[in-house]
Here is the input.
Amino acid sequence: MKARRKPGRGGARALLPALLLAACAPSPEEQARRSIDSGQAVAEIQTFFDARAQGLPLGQCAAVLTGVSPIQISDRTARLDTVRALVEAGLLEEVAGAPAGEVRLAPARKAAHWFRVRTRNPALPSSIELCYARRRITRAWLVGEDGKTLNFAYRLVDAPAWTGDPRMRAAFPFLEPALTKELVATGIAPFRDGRWFLDLADEGITLPGQDEGFYACPDGRERPDPGCGG
Here is the structure.
């Protein structure tokens, strides 16, 4: 007569390897560190920005003047060096329909592929942005008390020739440091459930004392033109 097996022993033996595996599984903090060390984090961030290019040749973009097309500004503002630079570089061109004392500008036909229309808030008008570079992620590292928050650094590359135009560099001081320095995004993404949660709503860059957009009166200019913003 066969001995009767005690109930539950086989199930306990089957459960033991699973418990051992669970005990040996890396913690979220360790998973995050391994993601950094293996290059996975940098690859994920790069993929995120490449996908956000929306079919444009470049994905790093900034608002232009008023942000709405056609751009309607006063004659005085149209004479500012910032506006003249955009026109003389062939990026904006004058269009008909402006009332007396004002000028209407729109993206030039030959430069249309550098522009995109963006709606940040459905309740507000769409804005036009001028795309001037692509982000190349250079490194990433962990910060924060939880050891699971991501910072990363990047350079802006593949800039078109017009970004080096002396008129553009003089009118928009942010271009030179933006296109020559390594930039840092801080506290940008948490690590949860085995992956980085990249929800980078703001694609702009931040440079001390300077505005990142192609506006009539960029911040950080020591001596803006008389009547700037008029």
